[in-house]
Amino acid sequence: MTHDHDLVLRPTAAQTEAALDPPPGRTGGDLVVETLAGLGATTVFGLPGQHALGVFDALRRSDLRYVGLRVENNAGFAADAYGRVTGEAAPLLLSTGPGALTSLAALQEAAAASAPVLAISSQIPTRGLGGGRHGYLHELPDQAASFRGVVKSVHTVRAQSQIPSALQEAWRSALTAPHGPVWVEIPQDVLLAETALPVVTAGDAFPEELPPRPELTAVAADLLAKAARPVIVAGGGVVRADASGKLRKLAERLDAPVVTTFGGKGAFPWTHPLSLQSWLEDRHTTDFLEDADVLLVIGSGLGELSSNYHTFTPRGRVVQIEADLGKLESNHPALGIHADARLAIQALLETVPERTDPTAPERVRALLSRVSERLASQELALEQQVLASVRTALPADSPSFWDMTILAYWAWSAFDPEGSNHMHSAQGAGGLGYAFPAALGAAVADPTRPVLAVSGDGGALYSIAELATARQYDLNVTWLVVDDGGYGILREYMTDAYGPATATETTELTGPDFAALAESFGVPGVRTSPEALAADLAKALASPGPSVVVLPVRLRMFAPTHRGSDHPGSG
Fold first, then answer.
1. Beta strands in 285-362 (DSSP E)
2. CATH number belonging to domain 214-368
3. Number of H helices and number of E strands within the chain?
4. Within this chain, domains 24-192 and 214-368 share the same CATH topology
5. Do residues 328 and 303 make contact, with C-beta atoms less than 8 angstroms apart?
6. How many Cβ atoms from other residues are within 10 Å of residue 552's Cβ?
7. To 10 degrees, what angle do helices 533-542 and 381-393 make?
8. For position 88, what pLDDT does the model report?
9. Distance (Å, rounded) from C-alpha 551 to C-alpha 49?
10. For residue 376, with 0-12 CB atoms within 10 Å meaning exposed, 13-18 middle and 19 or more buried, which class applies?
11. 292 in Cβ contact with 231 (< 8 Å)
């Protein structure tokens, strides 16, 4: 009897000939790029460094496209976005020590958002490993230890023969649900030494599937079939699993209203009669979810933002489908189903009977009406006008990337992304500087459509150097910088908590003329106004290559809408 795992792939005659007579002059760096190409990579991001030069030298002998950014953290954000947009593992090439450590904030965001990033770092020569006393430039006593608490898995290489297998295993890890960043480190001497190993021609790194346990989906289907008021919470796991179509079928079969988390934006059509949209920072929405007798949570851990800052207390039965085992029942008791969202939804579609609830669309309309009335009472017409102008200017199929700024906080709740996997933000980990370099990564992934980045002036200064990258590669990214002269969201929090004097001392910023600064990089820049924003932004997005649109305006957040104190954030 033959089992699939007993089968051995036999090399072709051409592969055998090439293996027995490898071309001269190859190094460990060539093994890296050959393995990446064999695994299916076409593009790599990163920055060169002394210990990593073996890989960068090998790139010129490969067909891989290299996109170099100016700061390692920004390169990580670009790889993060490339992974989100394509669903492929995005290689990120880094040097040792400071270069590697500078990527940590980006890798934390990738982990929080389940973005598949394959970070490959150099190391000091093998003879210096383990002590931290050898005086090598960039030396750390234990470099990998800095990453173990951030990435999904760490893979160490100490010999050239280990390179293909380590990269293959890391690739599989990055793409196995839940997706996420992984880390591989390779010493300098291993990368630089010539190799007699044959050319790497292919890689077998199919991600492992994570199907649901059938007895659990049977119970979930029974609960949903008998529910009087079922509601679905769709998180980022639905987007990562490309399961938005299946989610819609399930919601329509159940006549169940659907709210998307901020990470799950676009997982369900915004204008669908069953769409509660994504007003999670709203007491009325929280009450609606608490009133559900069965709450089906798919691809969300119901963390701080998704639970209205931990004020959400479900009264009904919770069914939670989550690929990240650590998030399963981490915040609320539930029928926990450890599974990929797509496979779990398919299992429910095959088992749950159709139910009809003619009151569901009217209950959805009533809730959204209460949300609108609340906003109308707060004199926030300017903020809504600005967000509407962005939506008007942005083509329906274009992705957008949002930094931690007041307009992004609005967008989490109020922006219609007009499609799954179209809207991305740094709300997973909450670091500054995400939007622009991430948008560059998305533009590399798909140069056929314009990409929008939205930052405040504080966050923009984190990634201003990447204007050079945008110009060098002529990427179709329009960067909207909302300039309010400081860390706007922190200004609001500090004013509320400590008074305007403290806020003025700590949140106000002296900044550049962003439009003139963009022009100095050879990137068109324009100053606009709320009234002209839609037209100016649309013109910039329609123009090929990078551009910057600066909006000098001070926006306000809507009032707190949950029990307790205001939410935390950045500027």
1. 294-298, 317-322, 335-338
2. 3.40.50.1220
3. 24, 17
4. yes
5. no
6. 16
7. 20
8. 95
9. 37
10. exposed
11. yes
* pLDDT (tens digit per residue) in 127-142: 877 765 667 788 788 8
Question: Average pLDDT, stretch 51-60?
Answer: 95
Name the CA radius of gyration of the chain, rounded: 25
Q: Which of 36-40, 310-314, 551-555 has the lowest mean pLDDT?
A: 310-314
Of residues 1 and 549, the one with the higher pLDDT is 549
Copy the structure tokens of residue 494. 């500090």
Tell me the two tokens of residue 391.
């939506």
In the chain, what percentage of residues exceed pLDDT 90? 78
CATH no. of 24-192 = 3.40.50.970
Nearest residue to 41 via CA among 447, 473, 470, 445 = 445
Joined tokens for residue 408? 């992004």
Residue extents of the structural domains in the chain:
24-192, 214-368, 378-552
**Amino acid at site 423:** M
Which of the 8 DSSP states describes residue 404? Answer: S
H/E stretch holding 184 reads strand 182-187
> What is the four-CA torsion angle of 521, 522, 524, 525, rounded to 10 degrees?
30
Pair 66, 48: CB distance under 8 Å: no
The 10 Å Cβ neighbour count of residue 325 is 12
354-to-222, 245, 254, 275, 287 alpha-carbon distances in Å: 11, 17, 6, 18, 26
Task: Say what the pLDDT of residue 161 is.
Answer: 96
The CATH topology of domain 378-552 is Rossmann fold (3.40.50)
Tokens found for residue 15: 């592969």
Cβ atoms 322, 300 nearer than 8 A:
yes
